[in-house]
Amino acid sequence: MKEESNSELIFSKINDKIKFCNTRNKIVHTDFFTEPEMIKVEKYLASVKFKNYFFFGGYEGSDRKILFMYPEKLTYEMAFSNVKNVLEIIRITLPNGQKEAFLHGDYLSAIMKFGIVREKFGDIIVYKEGADIVVQKENSEYFKENLSQLIRFRKSNIEILDLSEIHDRNQETEEISVIVNSMRIDNFVSELAHCSRSKAEEILISERVMINYEIVTKNSKSVKTGDIITIRGFGRFVVKEISGKTKSNKDVVVLIHNK
């Protein structure tokens, strides 16, 4: 019931944006959406026959994206050129003694402490020297000021940068192998989140796991080559291949981990 209510609120806001876009002949945009939300939004836009739109989150392959809608008088290329006027990045560069000290969850919890809702900022790209946070320009100064006041970042350099300077997330990947009893999702969650099977089931029930950007709660859901497994708090994993079997007939699976 809560999910339906949230969807209705999203669709209502999109309707308002469409009306503004059509009557004012201006490009409009929303806050950030998750992948499951984007799937619902695309279906809704198809149902109302609105075609002049695109999603973008600051870089190719972002998890969270903004919906941009534009009037018929504009081309996609003209509309896309407006992205630079909407998005910026906040870069946190850690001091030498803190390199690699923080994980994605540390940056996320820091931001949430100053009371901004999750849909107001996009991906947090974590790397050795710090992190880049994708934000809307209208909120960038607020982010910078509040992050600068946090104790954990008091010695860090925090700056607002143009979107073109964003850190290449594709550099922060690694190939890993796991051994699973079967291709059920709970086996993968247990291995990738480094937890027991019972804890993996809790993670699934709490809706923290997605396969191909759709939430999965049943532990018996099968995983196949090419699937994208997202575990909130642990990252995104692409199933590359089943490379073989162990002597005990377990599957050896190779995945690409996007940190």
What can you see in these coordinates?
The protein has 259 residues and is of the alpha+beta class. It folds into three domains: 2-82, Ribosomal Protein S8, Chain: A, domain 1 (2-Layer Sandwich); 87-170, RRM (RNA recognition motif) domain (Alpha-Beta Plaits, 2-Layer Sandwich); 172-258, Structural Genomics Hypothetical 15.5 Kd Protein In mrcA-pckA Intergenic Region, Chain A (Roll). Helices cover 31% and strands 30% of the residues. It has seven helices and 13 strands. The protein has helices at residues 2-24, 35-47, 76-80, 104-113, 137-148, 185-192, 197-205, and strands spanning 28-33, 53-56, 65-69, 87-93, 121-127, 130-136, 157-161, 173-180, 209-211, 214-215, 228-231, 235-245, 251-258. It has a six-stranded antiparallel β-sheet, covered by helices on one side. Strands 5-6-4-7 form a four-stranded antiparallel β-sheet, covered by helices on one side. Strands 1-3-2 form a three-stranded antiparallel β-sheet. A hairpin with an 8-residue loop joins strand 2 (53-56) and strand 3 (65-69). Helix 6 (185-192) packs across helix 7. The longest helix has 23 residues, at 2-24. The protein is globular, with a radius of gyration of 20 Å. The model has no long low-confidence stretch (mean pLDDT 92).
